[in-house]
Write a structure and sequence with these properties.
Blueprint lengths: L1 H26 L4 E5 L5 H9 L6 E6 L3 H8 L12 H15 L3 E12 L4 E12 L2 E11 L1 H27 L4
Parallel strand pairs: 1-2, 1-3
Antiparallel strand pairs: 3-4, 4-5
Amino acid sequence: MFQNVLDQAMIRLDSELNTRVLALLSAYKLRISIAETISIGAVTQRFAIMDIENNYIHVGFICPNTVSLIEHCQVTPSLLHDFGTSELAKAMAQGLHKKRKSTICIATSGTLKRDPQNHTYEARIHYGFSIQGVTKLKSMTLTGGEQTIYARIGQAALKTLEGFLLQHFENEGDLR
């Protein structure tokens, strides 16, 4: 019974978050490009689910190797030894912004480790956000089952973007 109540509350909170972010994207006519390494499409999927009419997603890439990072995100080869770092997430977001010209670019990098004793995972996620060329970073550690972590990666990206957009509009004025 308690789990059902908890699940319903999480669904409601997720729905409210989706509504708030969609309102910001719509009000300011923002377009998003996404590049992901560790999150293997979790962020793109999260945005695609809420953007059924495809009004806001410009492009989404999964970058599983160095070639894709260079091609899609214009990452310099000297940064490729930093796979899984905040520096890589920042470079990915900046490169994606230069190449795709989207208003918002989101990039993920990080590491995922499995704890065989507890049958759980720990993910160290680095997000790079480029909002009209202004880059912001956010890092966090998530633990739990593999599916739970990927769901949280998408949710955290959405919540972090909401905060950055509200801060950006307040500090920089209207993006239109």
